[in-house]
């Protein structure tokens, strides 16, 4: 699962690959936002942890992992 996290005043988003389901990630984000004073903590597929202060979150995008396409296209 690909997760993109937008952070206020940061020029680039954080991107991580997670083995968790979209529902589990959404529940973790919802729980962090409910408190409002804590942090959002997610772990990627390699065990690295990303921690972002909730008050600095701009958005969290949860998307299915896209596989690279193989093959060739003919240009005209």
UniProtKB/TrEMBL annotation:
Domain of life: Bacteria
Pfam family, one: DUF3107
Entry protein name: ATP-binding protein
Organism this protein belongs to: Stackebrandtia nassauensis (strain DSM 44728 / CIP 108903 / NRRL B-16338 / NBRC 102104 / LLR-40K-21)
Organismal lineage: Bacteria, Bacillati, Actinomycetota, Actinomycetes, Glycomycetales
